[in-house]
Protein 1
Amino acid sequence: MLSLLLAAFVAGQGQALEIIYPTEPELTAVTVQWSGHEVPFIQRGDHWLAVVGVDLDSRPGEHAVAVTFRYADGHERSHREPITVRSQKYPTTELTVEDRYVELSPEDQARANREGEETNAIYRTLTPQRYWTEGFEVPVRGATDGRNFGHRRVFNGQPRAPHSGTDLRAKTGTPIFAANRGRVVLAKDLFYSGNTVFIDHGLGLYTTYLHLSAIDVAVGDMLERGQQLGLAGATGRVTGPHLHWGVRILDARVDPFSLVQLGAP
Ligand SMILES: [Zn+2]
């Protein structure tokens, strides 16, 4: 019965979302149109699942996404899956500071723009396989919460991009571990984020680790879940040591803890 397949999918702005369907005889593939990509589902036990992200700035309310089911005999069917986006309140802080603290030199601005293009190109890449099979874990051992995901700051009346990760307390030198299995796709010093590591977990899901004092991995390395990738620090534009931990799922900026809470799929 098709009606049994229609679960109510609900996520807050800035949260990861699992879309799950039960297996059916002869069903060989499921995909969902999300953020301009055709995202494949993976089959796990008695269900098919995809992990997608609802961006911080997604419009609250009802959305519909196109899901396609393909069968062994070659036929396919599509339906519009309703997704409900709940509004999620994140704090805004207005700050007045001297302009010289918010305006970059032309050289720094050019570098920051170049690096922004480079990181956006990574986020737009959808690696067609999924590298992980277990749930995501927090990259600082013992950390159970973070701060400031979604926090909006307005400097001298100019809104900045909202804080797109969570800040975990970590002294300089604290070991930082990969949140899940995946391939290193960026490992270098960037203007804003200092020593930075990006891990591609496949199917459009990336985790990022910023402001490190040391990087222990290189682009191309395949990391296991829990493998050390570097040490926490205070590099880049920060006021003190911590780990900024980010998650992107396709173009969506999501709270890393919402991904951890999905648990093992
Ligand atoms: Zn941060």
Protein 2
Amino acid sequence: MSTGPKQSHDNGLHPELLPPDDPDAIYHNGHRLDHAEGVSRPMRSKPEPQPRGARVHGNRPIDQAEAAGRFIAAPEHEKMHDERLWDLRQKRDREMHGIEEWEELRSLASAIKEHTLTHLDQYLEQFEANARANGIHVHWARDAAEHNRIVHGILRDHGAKSLIKSKSMLTEECGFRPYMASVGIEVVETDLGERIQQLDNEDPSHVVVPAVHKLRTDVAQVFARTIGADPNNSDVHYLAEAQREANRPLILAADAGMTGANFVVAETGTFVVCTNEGNADLSANVPKLHIASIGIEKIIPRLEHLAVFVRLLSRSALGSPMTQYTSHFRGPRQGGEMHVVLTDNGRSARLGLAEFWTSLKCIRCGACMNTCPVYRRSGGLSYGATYSGPIGLIIDPTFNAHKYSNLPFASSLNGSCTNVCPVKINIHEQIYAWRRELVKRHEVPFVKKAAMKAAGELLSRPAAYRAAIAAADFALAHLPRFVAYNGLNAWGRHRENPHPPKQTFHSWHHANRGGKQ
Ligand code: SF4
């Protein structure tokens, strides 16, 4: 792999549009990695169908492994997804190595979040007082239902029938779009990836790049179906232009705009939204009514702390030094109105969970997803939850431990997520802690529980263990294949056992070392 020397992009083009001899390009096995498929070479004539996400049946536990199996069975999608995200991870590493004090920044960010979360009430009240002084209306929502009702109330009071909205994971948590549809308000996403997902009736599959699991050909199909674009043209420039043409009139005619927030500053009563498309600025500035939907954990005490997070966020997320837009919202514009809905939705309960409260430090950069081998190969929609990847494994069960009881097992516990997390959340340790917790709560499948109990018994009796190993070796060598590889053996569905040795290590040791330890 070569990364080439660092150079400034004098021609002003986005890196993906640079020529093939771009010195900044990353190569893997002789192929250039382009995370946004910026190169518009034609793909094969018959596109591979897009694998869909997890099947959700009410409150039944999500079968992530089943959905991941379908994603892996679509090799073009799996390969593209894996390479695209690994490309982001490599770009993140390059940026990180360019900052000598990276580890100090991570520690500082973690400490600021820890301090804020342990004084949350104080900083939230400070923010509320300062925001009101700035002319912002501040609302408090206990849960998703209250959040949706409050926003609906504001829109109703203004006679608003259409809302443009930038990407916000909190509104995904709240089931905001379906709720708005049920009360007759049209919501239009302004982030390109999120709009693709909205038009395709899918949730975002990644917190930063919501349509990262789709090929260009998938997007061409979605746009052909929904906005009348050419189904055979999957050129990225054509697709982006088609969407802009379709979306811009809706944006200009909208009655209200909505954003989330990346950071909320207590001392100034202001909030900050980071995007790369400037779409949050359209949502906030085109209509006169701006509503910001904000999770209470987004608060930081002082403006000077923002610099720490802004330096970490985009580098960790996309491997770029900064988001293209870092917009500060200080109050309503002249003749307009600004509302902030501070939403709990399970956060204060999570704050009380001794082993999991530090997950509230998360700044939603997605770095843990980009590095996770399970996520990269199974796609975010296989998790069947608002949050996917490593951070999802520890947040989702706090919403519903039964429905998401399988998720903490979708990890190899390799710890890479913890290593890249810019706010130093001990992600893999929390995943492991969730496994213990789910066993305690009897939320693991019967077969797994029985197998673990049997293994525990066996491992605590050396003589029985040795006899079982000898029996297993004999069975593998002599019994028909279906005895070892059947429906009960999920592990064996995609793997082969090694050939059984002629002699166990114990018997070899006994024979050659006289049984001495
Ligand atoms: S857990 Fe850490 S790495 Fe993962 S999204 Fe949150 S801040 Fe980023």
